[in-house]
Amino acid sequence: MLPVLSSNSMKMKKLGSPLVCVLTGQRVISDGRSPMVMSEGEFCPIYCEEINALSDIEKKRLATRAFQADSVRQSMSLKWLATAVSDEDDPSDAALFVRYARYPEINPHWQDEIAVFVLATRFLARHGVELPETPTDDDRQRCFVHLRDIVRCAEVRSQAALSAAKAAWEALLLMPPPIVISCLHDVIREGLEQRSTMSESRSYGSVEISQLFHAELLKLARHFLSEGLPAMAGHGHKDERATAWAVQLVGELGDRSDLGTLRTILNQPDFARSATGAIRRIEMRL
């Protein structure tokens, strides 16, 4: 016999939205086909109320079931779910993260996709699970293969991981700088450094990559600036944030030898504003 639904649950059912039901003794958000969490629109407070009413065990079951849904990558709750599952740090959940560690898919929630890609890589690395094979059909895909090795090293710090990361940094120098800087920026800012305070992981905290790979970051940023081309995002448009970030790196980590390059790009609209700031930072240290 079906349980009595709360008034909020009845409202969700009436309007055809996901409802709270009981499946094998636990309450889950379900659309009738697959478990799913949707925290958007007018029903966001309703979902939060229902979820917060669950016990810790029920919340874990809910997050785990929802994280397995085929459509979860299109959900605004992707990062929240990945974080909730990873916070338990249960090695038996490794299989859930494999598909996310392959390659970040281009979707409307790109920042969350990148964050989960990095989180999945760290989770598998920490628990000694081999990373899955990835597509290598173009430069962007190949770039993420190398970035995974760097992320893995940031997590486990073993000699083997350090060797793989060193090779990855060298490989990135041989790839198109506009693509590399865009991908690197997203992995570091959205993934490793977790600049967003939403759904911050308790078990997989922020990693200051500049402390681990100071020289490598600076070398790559300098290489990017020497090419004089702006960063390019996956959709083929200029990545202004990544361009400004790379220039900022040179300003923070560089020295007087970088002033010539920075002054050269002052006349380029894509670099002018950030280059001015970088020059100022270096000159203040002289």
Can you describe this structure?
The protein contains 14 helices and two strands. The protein has helices spanning 7-14, 44-52, 56-67, 78-86, 94-97, 110-126, 139-156, 159-172, 177-192, 209-212, 214-227, 240-253, 259-264, 272-285, and strands at residues 19-23, 26-30. Strand 1 (19-23) and strand 2 (26-30) form a beta hairpin.
What are the defining features of this structure?
286 residues, elongated, two-stranded antiparallel ribbon, 2 strands, mainly alpha
Order of helices and strands: HEEHHHHHHHHHHHHH
What radius of gyration results from the CA coordinates? 22 Å
The number of helical segments is 14
Total strands: 2
Looking at the structure, what is the overall shape? elongated
Give the spatial strand order of the biggest sheet: 1-2
The averaged pLDDT comes out at 84
Q: Determine the N-to-C terminus distance.
A: 76 Å
Q: What class would the helix/strand composition place it in?
A: mainly alpha
**Percent of residues in β-strands:** under 5%
Uncertain runs: 1-43
List the helices and strands and how they pair.
Layout: H1 7-14, E1 19-23, E2 26-30, H2 44-52, H3 56-67, H4 78-86, H5 94-97, H6 110-126, H7 139-156, H8 159-172, H9 177-192, H10 209-212, H11 214-227, H12 240-253, H13 259-264, H14 272-285
Antiparallel strand pairs: 1-2
